Amino acid sequence: MTLWLTRIVPSPSSREARRDLGGSDQGIRLHQRMLQMFPDGVEGPARAAFGVLFRAEESPRGPQILLQSQMEPDSSRLPGAYGNVETRSLDALLSNLHKGMTVNYRCVANPVRKPGATSRETYKLPPIVALSGNAAVEWWERQSNAGGLEPLHITAHRLPAVRGQHGYRGPAAKQRIQHARTQFDGTARVLDVELLREKLATGIGRGKAYGCGLLTIAPAR
What we know:
Number of helices: 7
Order of helices and strands: EHHHEEEHEEHEHEEHE
Strand content: 35-45%
Largest sheet: 4 strands, antiparallel
Strand order of the largest sheet: 2-3-1-4
C-alpha cells in the first residue's frame, strides 16, 4: 500500500482558503475540502475509503495543510488559486524504517479517556473526558508504544478545540461536534516497524475526520 503526503500552502488571496482556515470549525470545513480531491460515489465513509488524514499547522512559510491518503489526490478539484500543492509518495520513508532508528514526530491528537459507569455516576462525568497536562502526555506515551514507538522526548501543546455543526442543513445541522486537541512533538525510537507503518496509515485516537490523528515522522539527524 502506497501512502501519499500532500502539502498545501493556501494562498492569502483565496477567499475559500481563508474561510477554511478560520474559526473554531476549521477542522469541519477542511474535512469537506480535503474530500473534494477524491472520487465521489464510494461505499461507506469516504475518509476511511481513501485513508484520508490531515492537519492544519503553522510553518516558517505561514499556514499549511498536510494531507495523507492512500490514493493520490486530484488537486485540480480544489477551487481555483486555492494555493500551492505538492504531493509525494511516502514509499521511501516507509521502506527505510528499521528497529532502533530515531525519528522526529508530530501529531495533533484528541487525548481522552472514557470513565467507567461507576466513576461517571459518582463524579457526574461525561462519557468522554478530554485530557490535558501530564494526563495527556501519559496518553501519548501509551498511544506511541501501541504504535511501535518509544518516546524519548515529548512536548505537548494544547490547541483550540474543534467545534461546530456536523452539517449545514437537515438533521446534521443539529449535531454538534467538539474535539479537544493537543499537538505532540518530539523524538522517538522505533520499536516495531510493522506496528508503526500501520499507525502511520490509520492515524491515532479520535477525531480523525476533523484534523486529528495524523502522525508524521522524519529520520532524526
